[in-house]
Structure formats: C-alpha cells, structure tokens
## 1
Amino acid sequence: MSAENSSSGSESTPSRTPPSFQDLVRDAMRQHKHEKESEAHQIFRNAAGHKPKGVIPQTVNPDEETVPGIEHPGSTGVIYCSDRAMANGFNYANSHEWANLGQGAPEVGPIPNAPSRPDSIPMPVDSLEYAPTTGVKELREAVAHLYNDTYRKDKASKYTYENVCIVPGGRAGLSRVAAVIGDVYTSYQIPDYTAYDQVLSAFKRLVPVPTALDIKSKYKLDIEQTKKDIRTQGLAVILASNPRNPTGQVIKGHDLKELVSLGREGTTTILDEFYSWYIYPEHESGYGKSISAAKYVEDVNQDSTVIIDGLTKNWRLPGWRVCWVVGPKNLITALSQSGSFLDGGANHPMQLAAIPLLDPARVALEKVALQRHFKAKRDHVLARLHDLGLDVDLPPSSTFYIWLNLAQLPEPLNNGLVFFEELLKFKTIVIPGIFFDINPAHRRNLFNSPCHHFVRLSFGPPIEDLDRGLDAIGLVLKKAKRNGSANFGHGYV
Ligand SMILES: Cc1ncc(COP(=O)(O)O)c(C=O)c1O
C-alpha cells in the first residue's frame, strides 16, 4: 500500500460534493487556536510523560496500574517522533524506505576525501576490565593534545589529561555535569537541543532560567543582556549548544570571547560543541577551521569554561558512545564522582580504539572532507526548498539542521506538529519545532510556543534520503494545493 493510500480515505472525496457535517466540523477545526482542538497535539499529550505538569501519575496505558513512586520523565522530542513513525509503519528493517530527516545523526559511511572508516575494534584482555570513570588516560591525553594543537598553540596554559573526562556519550556528559550543579540559577536559551529539557528537569537542585532567542536578532545570544542578567538575577551557570541545534547559528569571534570571559568573572559557561566542525565557510580559505571556546580560555584551571564534545557528530560515530568533557581540574574530579553513580564510564575497548582517531593530522583531513560534503548537501536542500516555495528565514551557517518556518502555509499545515504527522503518511520524519522549546515545567499551551510554526530538518543523512524527504514535502504541498487544507490535521494512527 502506498503512503498516499495509507492516509485517511476522506482525501479522495470530490470537492464538488456538498460539505458533510464532519467537513464543517473539520473546517471549524482549522481555525483552532488551542492544542486541545488539535488531534496531532492530543496524540502528543497522551504519550506518557507529556501531559501538562500536575496531571500525574502518567502511564503508557491509562488502564494500567501505576507503578508506585514512578513518574514518566517524558521522552526527548526525537524519540517521540521515532515512536510516532513506528506507529505509522517505520521500523529498522524498512528504514531505507523512509526519509529520516528527524534524527540528528550524520551519515556514517565513507564520504569523498575523508580517511577510511574504522571497521574493526581490537579487544586486548585488559580492555575487558572496567575503565576508570574519568576514562582511559591515553585517550584523555589525546583529547587534551587535540585541543592544545587546534586552539591553544599560542597560549601558555595548556590542557592536560586532568582537564578531560571521558563520558559514554554527549547526553551522559550533560547529565554528569548537571548532576554536579548546585542549588543555583542555570540559564539556557530557547530554542536549543531537546535533551536539555529533560536533563534540566531531572536534576532538581539547579533552577532552570529560560531566555527566548528571537528570529529578529537572528537567534543571537545577547551577551550584554546576559551580563545584566548575571548581575540582576544572579545566574551562576549558562548552558548553550554552540554551534546551536536547531537554528544552525554559531557564536564566534568577539562574542565567543566575551562569553568565555564570563568564566573569569564567576559564571560557569557550559558550551556543548558537538557541531564544532560543521562550519560552512564562504571562501575556500575557510575550509578546515572549527570553532571552540577553548581558543579563548586563558587559564585552563581558573576559567570556569566547560566544553562538551565527542565522536558522535564530528567524527560521525554516534554508535561508539565515546565523548568528553573538558574543563578545570576541579570540575573533572566532580564529574568522576557523578559518573561513579550515573553511568560507570565509557566502553573500554571503544576508548582505546578512539585514540588514533584524535591524531591532529587525521582530524584535519576529516574536517575538510566533512565541511565540503555537508556544505554541498546544505546548498542542495536549500535550493530544493526554494523550488518548493519554502525559503528558509535564516539559512544555517553551521550544524546539519535547517530551522524551517512554516508560518506562510495554510492552517493547520503551518504548525510543526501537524506538518510532521502529514509527512509520516509519506514515510518522512522531521522534528516539530515545539520540541526545541525547552520548557521544563511543560505548562503552557503548545500553540503559544515560539517554535509552534517550525520544524527542524536534518541534512545529516545521505543525499538520496534527503531527496526522498524533499519529494515527500513536495507531495504534501501539492495535496494542499489540490484539495485545500480540510484534509489535514486529522485521521492519524
Ligand atoms: C547539541 C547536542 N549535544 C549533544 C548531543 C548528544 O550526543 P550523544 O548522542 O552523544 O548523546 C546532541 C545530539 O543530537 C546534540 O545535538
């Protein structure tokens, strides 16, 4: 059965037949302004852990007994989207028939002019033991060396292995860091990486303080305003992804220098730099440059700048679960303690296998190859979106995400969650913008979210997948032109 056939039967209703009562109701629904009247939003609210706060306990099946003391934290947006895709027929066996522009994963196969991909892992007997919770010393040294070589050649203060903690993935790194943040105001911005929502709400001591970034100022973090907030609100910690997921914008140069300087004035700055190589230069001379706060840190043990990165995106090895946190020695000892009860450390053989991948000469080749390949994909997707009449307000200068504003489309297609559900009918996954509206209290009407009209498209996958997804977007838009929008917003499985 084709994707088109698998959608609601009402799509084939000739437009000349008089409107039925159901059609009238649907027409009225198109005017809806509250999530309660949107089927796509109600499906989301009914998934365990996604009810507005205060409506607990929550279970997967409301008829089931609740488990005493257990509360669903809510899955991250990306996982919710995969679950919805599975409900619509997606599975790992048929995933090649789908275009997954949702999951934030880079393609992992060979790309032109990059060093060959690792294809086997040695397993010396020692590697069968636990690794230390801070990681294998040689890998910590290799990480420190890479940062010194790339960003700190001119600095007297250099990172050593004692400034590096190896962690089993970026989210494990974020959780280890969040677990050691005390009873303080922790600032984050909207929109940003979806997992911050759960991470910030799971560790109850810290108090999350959101700041909304505005498209009018190109989603730029206002450093002067941040300095004021530090003074007036007493912010102690600032968390941001840089380059930023999902907007594809980056804090660099003077702004990054200023942000890092906050770490010398009593505010801890946590920079999640998972996309630090995904920088798309305008000129040939720009290839091979990456961006990190490490360039602006003066004293590696005095400046409270914390950097999180790893093999997941830059090395295109998300399955390895080998990542790191770089920061003052005193932070690393705290992370060793939180790791000792949170995750127990990264996989030992994979840590050993990672060491040669951090060789600066190899990294230099990887970076250029990756930037050329992903820039070409970005330009291709932007051009195809333009042909579909979907120009991007703010094309990404970094990451592999496009933050697409749907506000110009007819209702209800102009809301990210409905657009997502409609694309599932055509075997394509994107991520509705609301999942980047980090709102740990889950209290508001989702229609009021500043991210309501957006979806995030990933150009991480290979170009064939991107084209399949773009074809699907074209089909949804064609369907809207042909039949109007009455057929959208309902009939979801
Ligand atoms: C900004 C950012 N940080 C961290 C991660 C997570 O990394 P990992 O998959 O290693 O947990 C992601 C993944 O999407 C991300 O986008």
Note: The mean pLDDT is 89.
## 2
Amino acid sequence: MKKGALTLTNYRFRIRKKRTYVIMITVGAAVSTDLWANQKKHYVMQWIQDARAMFNHKCAECHEGDMFPTGAFSFNKPFDMHERCPKCNANYYPEPGFYYGAMFMSYIFSAFIILGFVMVLHWILKLSLMASFGWLMIVVAVFFVWWFRFARAFWLNLIVGFKPEKKAIAKAK
Ligand SMILES: [Zn+2]
C-alpha cells in the first residue's frame, strides 16, 4: 500500500497532527497576547521615543544631546560628529568601525526608497524617465546629509539602548 494513502490509521494520525497544531497555535497566541497587553504601552512608547531620537539625530542613551554640531540642512561641516554626547557624555564611538553597519542599512533603505520614488513619479504621476531621475537628483542632493546622519543615528539607537537615568542627567544640564 502507498504510504500517503488515506487508510483509517493515516486519517487518525492526520487529525491528531492537526489537533496538535491547533493547540500549539492557541497557546502561543494566548501567551503572546497576554505579554503584549502587559508590555504594549511600554514597547510602543519606547519605540516612538527611539524613532523620534533617530529622526532628530539625537543621542541614543539620553535622547537629548545632539549627535552633530551643525544643522543637517545648513550643509556646514556635514560629516563632523561629536565624539561624545554633549549632554550625558555617552560615547558615540563604542568600538572602531562602529558605523560600518550604518552604511549597509543606509544602502539597503535608500535603494528601496529611491526605487519607490522613481516608480511613483514614472508610473503613477506619468512623468518621463528623465524628469523622474531629475527630481530624484534634486531630492537626493537636498537630503544627502540628513540621510547620512539619520543612518548613523538609526544605527546608534538600534545598538545602544535608551537609559532613563541618563535622560535625567541630560535634562538637569
Ligand atoms: Zn546623551
């Protein structure tokens, strides 16, 4: 007899297997919903705070100190970065070559954003390819420094966690 044939034994086995999956999924869902309900507010708030620090190029530990001495759109000393947080003294260079990873994240994200940007302009707004790329050049030129800094802030905030006690120190300054 073939192995997968629908005999009574096979049929029972299939049902048992299905029941095991159902139990596993139900228990898993119940446990994770409970965890989520308990921690939801904390996680969401933390995530919003982290995101705000990334977009504003702020220190990962205190979310108060600036990572860069000049404005992103001033184009003045675009790649100069503080070595330590001016507010809480957190080290912005935890190890040599720390921002190597930021480069890869920046590369991956910018590739998708640029692709999406040109697709929207060319396919949805019906601009010519040349015009789409022209607009892309302008947007990239304007956001170049901001994006470089965002990648670094993103990486620092991703690796280094927020420390509430440091925020208190930074706020007192
Ligand atoms: Zn700081």
Note: Residues 56-172 form one domain.
